[in-house]
Amino acid sequence: MEESLTMRKQIPGTDLSIFPINLGTNTFGWTADEAQSHAVLDAFVAGGGNFLDTAESYPAWVPGNTGRESETIIGTWLASRGNRDEVVIATKVGDHPEHKTQDPEYIRTAIDSSLERLQTDHVDLYYAHRDDEVTPIAEVARVFDEIVRSGKAKHIAVSNYSPARLAGWFAAAEDEGLVKPVAIQPQYSLVYRREFETDLRPVAERRDLAVFSYFSLAAGFLTGKYRTEADLEGADRGGMVQGYFNAAGLKVVDDLVAIADSHDVAPTTVALSWLLAKGVTAPIASARTPEQLEAVMAAPGLELSADEVDRLDRASAPFAQEDPS
């Protein structure tokens, strides 16, 4: 636990200090029920973790779900443990099946609903989850500023926005003296590189934004457990993994496993350590059981050599291009 404290990073422009693994909670209410989710949260905190990522839409893709289960489960855990001040909570608005817009009126009600489910009076980070590219960006910037000034969110962040819309947000914030985003959440992994490295990393570096990558393990593909078509059968995320299941993707996994074996760690650990080596502040990774957390939490303690990073860069080079096939 003491070692994990020394690993913590400050999110630029904030007083938020985080362990460099962001626990994804999209499994809560999907592959993990409430009791299992609470066990994962307990294990994460016991291991030094303190940064939780959720959304009003998690996990709406499960038949019969409302998409608000993850926040609700985190809320019951916070209430039962009484540890709200010990964790950093991020949630998102704007990608729910019923509400995909960035309409300011909806956002004003959505933050209140999220806080009620989370059983807290504020979140530490509030994301615009997905841009609708229709709502004037200045209107979006104003409502997020309003939420911070009301005390319902400490800081704001952005996910799935184009560089052009991000630039518009910052321009509006500077023109009107509004609160600015402090982080972005892009899709980024060894098998999904081009968008972040080409379009979004320059923005993050120029604006000194924290980066929290999602699909960091490519829906489990980079854990190394999917090596044949048979491995996909019956898997909860088999459909998501299928897109990476080609010669280029399997070459990445082969090199990942070889490096992991040389360190006597899991491929998961190496995949996340590579992201940290590439400048990600805290990769998002989820777990269905406490046992799955061990490999995730080990990533910040593994320092890949320059040769190992280069080997993974070369293996995954097709995914830094337009068409990895």
Brief synopsis:
The longest helix has 17 residues, at 247-263. The protein has 13 helices and 10 strands. The protein is of the alpha/beta class and 325 residues long.
* Straight-line N-to-C gap: 43 Å
Strand elements, count:
10
Q: Structural class of the secondary elements?
A: alpha/beta
Order of helices and strands: HEEEHEHEHEHEHEHEHHHHEHH
Unreliable spans are none
The shape is globular
The number of helical segments is 13
**Major sheet strand order:** 9-8-7-6-5-4-3-10
* Percent in helix: 40-55%
Output mean pLDDT. Answer: 93
Describe the structure.
With 325 residues, this protein is an alpha/beta fold. The chain has an 8-stranded parallel β-sheet, with helices on one face. Strands 1-2 form a two-stranded antiparallel sheet. The radius of gyration is 19 Å and the shape is globular. Helix 2 (34-46) runs parallel beside helix 12, helix 3 crosses helix 4 (104-118) and helix 10 (247-263) crosses helix 11. Helices cover 43% and strands 11% of the residues. Helix 4 (104-118) links the parallel strand 5 (88-93) and strand 6 (123-128). It contains 13 helices and 10 strands.
Give the topology, please.
Layout: H1 2-6, E1 9-10, E2 17-18, E3 22-24, H2 34-46, E4 51-53, H3 69-81, E5 88-93, H4 104-118, E6 123-128, H5 137-149, E7 153-159, H6 163-176, E8 183-185, H7 194-207, E9 210-211, H8 229-232, H9 238-241, H10 247-263, H11 267-277, E10 284-286, H12 290-297, H13 306-315
Parallel strand pairs: 3-4, 3-10, 4-5, 5-6, 6-7, 7-8, 8-9
Antiparallel strand pairs: 1-2
Helix pairs in contact: 2-12, 3-4, 4-5, 5-6, 10-11, 10-13
